[in-house]
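Entry for the shared binder. Reason: the reviewer on the internal report wants the predicted structure included alongside the sequence.
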Amino acid sequence: MRTVVLTMKASVIEMFLVLLVTGVHSNKETSKKIKRPKFTVPQINCDVKAGKIINPEFIVKCPAGCQDPKFHVYGTDVYASYSSVCGAAVHSGVLDNSGGKILVRKVAGLSGYKGSYSNGVQSLSLPRWRESFIVLESKPKKGVTYPSALTYSSSKSPAAQAGETTKAYQRPPIPATTAQPVTLMQLLAVTVAVATPTILPRPSPSAASTTSIRRPEPVGHRSQEMDLWSTTTYTSSQNRPGADPGRVPKEELSTQSLEPVSLGDPNCKIDLSFLIDGSTSIGKRRFRIQKQLLAGVAQALDIGPAGPLMGVVQYGDNPATHFNLKTHMNSRDLKIAIEKITQRGGLSNVGRAISFVTKNFFSKANGNRSSAPNVVVVMVDGWPTDKVEEASRLARESGINIFFITIEGAAENEKQYVVEPNFANKAVCRTNGFYSFHVQSWFGLHKTLQPLVKRVCDTDRLACSKTCLNSADIGFVIDGSSSVGTGNFRTVLQFVTNLTKEFEISDTDTRVGAVQYTYEQRLEFGFDQYSSKPDILNAIKRVGYWSGGTSTGAAINFALEQLFKKSKPNKRKLMILITDGRSYDDVRIPAMAAHLKGVITYAIGVAWAAQEELEVIATHPARDHSFFVDEFDNLYQYVPRIIQNICTEFNSQPRN
C-alpha cells in the first residue's frame, strides 16, 4: 500500500510539472496574440453610413468622388447617422471631393435635421433620428486609442467590399480542460492518505482562465429615453443595438472611454470671437479678471457643434489667435484652454486686431459656418492706441456683428491722449446701446456676463449679419417681346444668371424670383420655390422665350402682386427690370406704386428702350438705378456696377 501511495505522489507531481509548463507556454502564446497591432487608418466607401459603424469615435480614410448626390447626407454641421460618412465630410468642408482622412464622433440624436447646400453637396432634411455624428479633421486626441479596424453592426457590411479592415464580434473562447493550468492549491488538495487512487479535480468551466479574455465590467449605462449612443465607449454590449450579449469587440477592451460631448444650445448658434486686451498697461490681475469673464461666457453659452462656437484672439502690438472656432467643441475644453492663456504685452492696437479678425478668423478653415452669424466681442482697457473706425466699417460690411466692452475709460486729464474720441460708437454694429457695454471698474466686469450672453444669442437682433448679398428678395422682370429674339433672350438670361451668382442664396438669405412679360405676364418661379443657388441657376436656364408685345407697366403691377406681395418683412425688396423697347402702356403709376411699397427698382434698357421711361421706372436717384446698353452682348459689363450700387446703398443705411 505504501508503495502505491508513493507511486501516486510521483505521478501527481509529474503531471503538475507537465501542466505547469503547458500553462506557461499557453500564457506566452496568449501574450503574443494580444499584442497591439500598429495603428492603421481604416478605409471606407462613399456609401458607408455612420449608423452602420458601431465605434463611438474613429478615424477613417474616404476615397475620392464622395460629392456625388447618390450618397445621401441628412443635416447641416450635425448629421443624422443615416448619412454617408464621407458625403457629410465633403458637405461640412473638412474634405473636398479628392477624399482624405477624417475624425468622426458620434453624438446624440436630434428632433430635426435641416438640409442645406454646401461645398457642392445638397444635404437633405430629416424630422428625427436616433443618433447623430459630427466630422472633424483627423487630429487624434492625446491618450485616446482609435480602432485600426471598424466594428460594423453587420458582419456583411458593404464597407468590406472596399478592402478595408472590418471586424465582427467574436465570442470569447470557453476554456478547454486540457489547456487549463493546475494551481498549487489544487495540487495540495489531493488526498493521499486514502488507499484508493486519487483523481485530480476537473476545473470548472466558469473558473477564471489565464488564456481567455475576461468581459469588462460595465462602467455606466445608456439612457433608455433615446435609442442612440453618445461619444462614450459602450459600457455593455447588451446596450448596443443588434449586439450579441456574448460578443465583445476587441477595441472595447483597450480604447479609452470618451466623455459625452454636448451638441450645444441650438437657440444660440453663433460663431463668436473674443478680442481680449493683452496690452502691458492692463496688468496681470486685470488680465486674470478678463479671463474669468471669458470662462463664464464659455460655460453659459453651452458650446457645441449644433450651437455656439468660440475662439479667442489676443491683441497688443499685434494680434494672435489662441484658438479658432473648431479647436474646442465643448465648454469644458474651452474653459481649460482659456485658463492657459498668458498675457502678451505691448500697446493696445484694437483697429489692427479687428482687421486681422475680418481677414483671417472667420474662414471655413477656422471652422466658420455659413449658417451661423459672426460675432466679435472686443474688450478694451481704457482706450485703443490706434484708430478703429475704418477697420470696423469693413468688418460690418463683411457681416460681422461687433460688440465693445470698455473698462475704466479715460479720466478728464487723460482724454488728450485718446487717439480716436467716441471710438466705441464708431466701431459697433449699431449705435443704439445694444452692442456697447461700459464698465466703471474691473471689479464690476462680472455683471456684464448675463446681459452679454443674452445679447449675442439674440440672433434676430444681430443686424450686421445681414449684408447686401444675403438679405434681399430679388425679382427679375424680363422682357420676352418679339423684338428681343431667341438668341438675345438667352443673352438676357445669362445676364440674370451672372447677377444671381453674386448673391448668397438660401431660404434665410437672398431669395430670387422671376417674371416674363409681353402683352401678358407669366410667373416663371416665386421667391419660395427654390432655396439653393444651383436650383435657382437651373430654373433660370429653363425659362422659355415667349414672344409678343411690350406692356411694361402691367408687368410691374404683376410683379408687385405675384412676387413682392409674398416677400418677407425683414428682406430688402429689389426689382431688376430688363427691357429692349418702349412700353405699349403707361409705366408711371405702376412705378410709383413700386416705390411707395418700398421696392427698390433697377431699370436696364437695351437697344430701342426709351431712356426717359427707364428713369421713371428706376428708384431715385435715377443715375444709380437706371442703365442703358446699346447691344445685348454688352449687358455683362454692367454686372459689377449694379452689384456695387446695391451694396453701396445697403451700407449707407443709418446705424442707429
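Summary line for the report: The radius of gyration is 35 Å.
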